[in-house]
Amino acid sequence: MSNNFSDLLTKTVFHESLVLRIVEVSIIVILIVLCVVGNCLLFYIIVTTSPRWWTTPANFFNVNLAFTDLMVGIVVLPFMAMSISWQSWLLSDILCQSTAFATILLMASSTLTLSVISLDRYFCICLPLRYQSVVTTERVASVVAVLWLTSFLLASIPLFGWGRYTFRPQSIPICSVLLEGQQRHVILLWSFMIILPVTVMIYSYMQILKVARKQANQIGCVENHFNSRMMTGTNETIGTSQNGTVSFGNNDSKHFVSRSLKSLKIVSIIIGTFFLCWGPYIGFNFWCLDNAKPIPYLGDLLTTFLAFTNSSVNPYLIIMFNRDFKIAFRNIFKSRQQE
Q1: At residue 52, what are phi and psi to the nearest 5 degrees?
Q2: Can you list the GO cellular component terms from the UniProt entry (predicted)?
Q3: Residue from 204, 203, 194 nearest 275 by CA
């Protein structure tokens, strides 16, 4: 009887672990498909809508983000799926370290690029008259180069003895940087990968919000001024239209406010998505840093999946909140339907 119960328990545990493994790998496959399809689609839309995309700062940054996230889907996630399905690392140790190195490199590049995109929106809205002279093609290329150099240096730190890349069977069975007992490394890593990008994004958000509110208040004051003159019968022809509404030549200002609010929406979506994907991962890793208890597998799994989800949703957010990209996306499906 005891042996039968033990066999039944073993089979049940094996069945549950097998089901969990299938679910885990299935989620990763979905993330890979979304990541590869979305970023390839973003590449295609940018190239077709702007053949000289490298001359437009926003497109330059979008292409860099798409390339980074595409590499996550091609290089990082497939090896993650293999190690989880095997529950071990059957390939060479050098390949394990290379995979972990690529993970830190690409994750750092992705988060830093998101902050640079927010900063580009800040310059475009808050310094519109100086934007063309400040944000030049050469400077954009230099920023991207510094961004990749910073990511490379962050990923190289464990190669010189400060932390190490290894297979982690005690938590999610993947190759990653060993963070336990490396408080300084963790602080440095998260400072550049998380704190710096978040600070830049929040600063850009607050400045764009400030400019949008100021411009909207100015337009409201001018409209009230002219409307009050019209109500009193004052012969005021400046800025009045045939139907009695006030235009006072502020179409450019209204367009500017509309563009400011649109940029504000884009930056807020970027910040919100970033916090949603990376917030649990950061909090969980800091909790595990000084916690002597074993790392909860489910918590580690879910927060890691959320962090990688950021690379899968970025291209769809960019397409969704860019009018030209959205039109190009619709045209692709219309042409497919006509064929």
Answers
A1: -100, 60
A2: plasma membrane
A3: 194
Tokens of 195: 């704190």
How many other CB atoms sit within 10 Å of the CB of residue 26?
Answer: 11
Q: Quick: pLDDT tens for 100-112.
A: 999 999 999 999 9
How far separated are the first and last CA of the chain, in Å rounded? 67
CA 94 to chain centre: 29
User: What structural domains and CATH numbers belong to the chain?
Assistant: 9-226+253-334 (1.20.1070.10)
Q: How far apart are CA 58 and CA 135, in angstroms?
A: 10
Question: Do 194 and 282 form a contact (C-beta atoms < 8 A)?
Answer: yes
Residue appearing with tokens 């060479």: 92
pLDDT (mean) for 36-49: 91
pLDDT tens, residue by residue, 51-76: 777 778 888 899 999 999 999 999 99
